């Protein structure tokens, strides 16, 4: 067999395999065989595929985000208050469990005590701002300002440096309550 016939056959075989795989994937997605119920955890393959896709997507899209050089104590406290209002229900906090109904979510929202070790400031801001599809994580940019979202990032960055007792004191002291007019 000549080299050109071999290459032609190889190319035709590759294209045919790709078409068969695409048609098979489409047929599977349309069949309803995949159980989308949240009571059943994702398969290892689905978990690997979706988690890896999410990580690479956040890294790519957050490259354009410019983070502040440093955060102030006031930003950390404001971030704590925004986190208490918008995030703690699903993600918990230092010494605070998430709400029990969150245990029925798939994928389960992660605790964020070590978020700043896993993600950079721009990546955290991008996640807070844009949310994550098919996870229940909303895009907060529709209801929070950039300053408010950066304050959440400031809080997340501070969670591993501030003693748990400080967070408990902030919660019990009403640090987030608006002053009376």
Provide structural commentary.
It is a single chain. By secondary structure, this protein is mostly helical. The protein folds into two domains: 1-34; 44-173, Cytochrome Bc1 Complex, Chain D, domain 2. 56% of the residues lie in helices and 0% in strands. α3 packs across α7 (146-158).
Tell me the fraction of residues in β-strands, as a range: under 5%
- Give the averaged pLDDT, no decimals: 92
> How many DSSP-defined strands?
0
Question: What's the helix count?
Answer: 8
Q: SSE layout and pairings?
A:
Elements: H1 3-31, H2 44-61, H3 73-86, H4 88-91, H5 115-118, H6 121-130, H7 146-158, H8 164-173
Helix pairs in contact: 3-7, 6-7
Sum up the structure in keywords:
single chain; 181 residues; mainly alpha; Cytochrome Bc1 Complex, Chain D, domain 2
In short:
With 181 residues, this protein is mainly alpha-helical. It is built from 8 helices and no strands. The protein is elongated.
């Amino acid at each position: 067999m000549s080299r050109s016939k071999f290459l032609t056959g190889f190319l035709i075989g590759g294209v045919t395999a790709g078409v068969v795989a695409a048609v098979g994937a489409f047929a599977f997605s349309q069949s309803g065989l995949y159980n989308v119920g949240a009571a059943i955890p994702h398969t290892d393959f689905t978990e690997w595929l979706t988690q890896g896709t999410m990580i690479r997507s956040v890294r790519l899209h957050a490259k354009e985000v410019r983070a502040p050089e440093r955060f102030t104590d006031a930003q950390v406290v404001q971030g704590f208050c925004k986190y208490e209002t918008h995030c703690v229900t699903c993600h918990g906090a230092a010494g605070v469990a998430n709400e029990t109904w969150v245990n029925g979510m798939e994928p389960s929202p992660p605790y964020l005590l070590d978020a700043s070790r896993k993600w950079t400031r721009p990546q955290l801001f991008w996640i807070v701002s844009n949310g994550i599809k098919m996870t229940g994580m909303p895009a907060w940019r529709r209801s929070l300002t950039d300053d408010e979202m950066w304050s959440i990032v400031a809080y997340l960055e501070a969670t591993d440096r501030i003693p748990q007792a400080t967070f408990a004191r902030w919660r019990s002291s009403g640090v987030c309550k608006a002053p009376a007019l």
